[in-house]
Every structure is written in structure tokens, then in C-alpha cells.
Amino acid sequence: MGIEGHWVGHYVQEIYGQTTGTSSDREENMFPVEVWFEVDGNRVTGRMKDLNPVREWPYADVLTSNLKSMNWIRQRKARQYLLDHPSSTYRISLFPDSILEGTITGDKVSFTKTYAGPCEYSFCEGDVEQVTRTLNQLIQYTGRVNAEGTAIVGAYEIPASALTGSKSHPTQTFELRRA
Predict the structure, then answer these.
(1) How far is it, in rounded angstroms, from Cα 108 to Cα 100?
(2) pLDDT averaged over consecutive 10-residue blocks of the chain (179 residues)?
(3) Burial of residue 157, with CB atoms counted within 10 A of its CB: 0-12 exposed, 13-18 middle, 19 or more buried
(4) From 1.10.10, 2.30.30, 2.60.98, 2.40.160, which CATH number describes the 5-178 domain?
(5) What b/e sequence results for 4-26 when a residue is b if at least 16 CB atoms lie within 10 Å of its CB, and e otherwise?
(6) Taking phi first (over 0 means left), then psi (-120 to 50 degrees means alpha), and beta for anything else, what does residue 149 get?
(7) So what's the pLDDT on residue 14?
């Protein structure tokens, strides 16, 4: 199954449980990408470009959807933060370029995406950043190529080791189609 060449598509990033499954929420959490694959035997290399690498959400929306998973101490601190900073936002600034390395066996493709620069996750009050975490993320992608070789659909996961001590993100989805 040949996957070399140019692909376009997106990955869906659920921000701490924010995606509710409605089409508008899903589209808000879709990150469009372009991908270029090269294949040598079963070895896959390439690059990915995030086309909309900066996103921002009201922190109240992000936090409210995640409160149930917090212990009571963290819930109290989070609620107090919202009272003190009612217009705060959660901002993701991804480095737009990344390197891909992996394998393909039959219709199954798996690769690791490594950002070529820093990714920042910030909580902001106006233009003042309250907290910033810079991560060098390694993201694991696994998918299947359709019978026609025109689409790849699968899932990705951000391992805990890439999140600087945080728990891993849940597995989320991606879709690519030949350009």
C-alpha cells in the first residue's frame, strides 16, 4: 500500500473533555494539517505542517468540563482562579512544523510526530500570560489506509512523558486524504 506523497486532513484535539460531540464543537477542535510521506521498504518518514497552530478557548469552558475529574482541593482552587480571573483563556501555540518517523505494514501505518520547535500551553488574563508550559511533544499516530490508498483514518496519543509529568491525554482521532 503506497502512501508516499502529499496528504491533507486534520486531527481532533479534545481540550480536557471540551468536545461534546456536536458538529460545531468537533469542528472547533479540528486542527488542519498537511502531510508529506516518503516510504523506503516498510520505513515511513516525512513531515507535517499544522495549518492553524494557535487556538484559544475561554478558560471557564475548559475548566468546567474537567471539574469532575479533579479532587476537591483542585476544584476549589480552580473555582477561585475563575472568580479572580473571569476573562482568562486557555491558549495552545503549536510549532507549525514537525518530523514524522514510523513504519507501514500492509494497510497499517504508525508514526511518531516530533515538533521541530516548542509548543506552549498558556492560561492568559487579557494579554498577560499566567502560566506557560513549553513542551517538546512526541505524539504517537496509528492508522489504516483504505483499500483505494486515498485515505488514512486512525488515532493518536500524547504520552505522559511528553507532558512533563502530567498524565497522558486520551487517545484522539485523525483523518488524512490524498491531496
Answers:
(1) 15
(2) 93 61 55 97 97 83 68 79 80 89 97 89 71 74 96 88 53 93
(3) middle
(4) 2.40.160
(5) eeebebbbbbbbbebbeeeeeee
(6) left
(7) 67
Domain extent listing, the chain:
5-178
Which residue shows C-alpha cell 479534545?
14
Q: At what angle do helices 72-84 and 59-66 cross, to 10 degrees?
A: 160
Quote the pTM value.
0.78
Place of cell 501505518: 109
CB atoms within 10 A of CB 53: 17
Q: Tell me how far apart the alpha carbons of residues 169 and 16 are, in angstroms, rounded to a whole number.
A: 8
pLDDT of 91 reads: 80
Phi then psi for residue 59, to 5 deg, are: -60, -30
Cβ proximity of 50 and 96 under 8 Å: yes
